[in-house]
């Protein structure tokens, strides 16, 4: 069933469960946030790409307003709730400055595969180790889902948007595994290249070949 949702298009992908801090400065979005606060309602962040506003986005709940500025700007903390699909977009909601639209909630399936998750863990350990960001592994919950690592895979916004449109966890796992399998050899080779560059000009102790 369709329902109305105020919309705040951004060139980012927000995943369900994600915490997001936003600085609100445009008058139209200050109005949107103010009304959501007063009415205890949510808004949506559809993904804005080069081709325009995508059909899918994430419903957002305001957790708190952290700071208000004299000029009307504000810093807010939010959380992603669920994925929606836009059925009818309104660039200007009648009588309002902001956009909106009729949306439908998207059902997602948590059919995660423990074996696939373990493969992802092993590849992430190699990737984060090569990049020197091993602390990212420490922050992952034991039974993490794809959304928990989605922003730490080196995805482009377009790739993150593709992930958002995978409504089964098993499909998201496959997408992540394919990505990691392709980029990891490139990253590891780049790190080897860095080491070779660093060694250039140093005294080398190299055993001669035995022939």
TrEMBL record:
It holds the Pfam family LON_substr_bdg. It comes from the Bacteria. InterPro entries: Lon_prtase_N, Lon_prtase_N_sf, PUA-like_sf. Signal peptide: none annotated. Residues 2-184 form the Lon N-terminal domain. This is Peptidase.
């Amino acid at each position: 069933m369709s329902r109305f949702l105020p919309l705040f298009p951004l060139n980012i992908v927000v995943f369900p469960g994600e915490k997001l801090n936003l600085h609100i400065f445009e008058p139209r979005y200050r109005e949107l946030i103010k009304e959501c606060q007063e009415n205890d309602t949510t808004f949506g962040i559809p993904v804005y790409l080069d081709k325009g506003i995508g059909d899918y986005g994430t419903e957002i709940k305001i957790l708190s307003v952290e700071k208000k500025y004299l000029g009307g700007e504000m810093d807010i903390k939010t959380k992603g709730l669920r994925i929606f699909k836009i059925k009818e977009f309104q660039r200007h909601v009648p009588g309002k400055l902001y956009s909106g639209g009729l949306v439908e909630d998207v059902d997602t399936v948590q059919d995660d595969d423990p074996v696939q998750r373990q493969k992802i863990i092993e590849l992430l350990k190699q990737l984060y180790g090569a990049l020197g960001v091993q602390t990212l592994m420490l922050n992952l919950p034991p039974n993490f889902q794809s959304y928990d690592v989605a922003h730490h895979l080196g995805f482009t916004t377009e790739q993150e948007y593709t992930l958002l449109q995978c409504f089964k966890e098993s499909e998201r796992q496959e997408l992540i595994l394919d990505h990691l399998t392709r980029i990891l050899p490139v990253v590891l080779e780049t790190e080897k290249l860095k080491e070779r560059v660093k060694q250039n000009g140093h005294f080398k102790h190299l055993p001669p070949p035995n022939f």
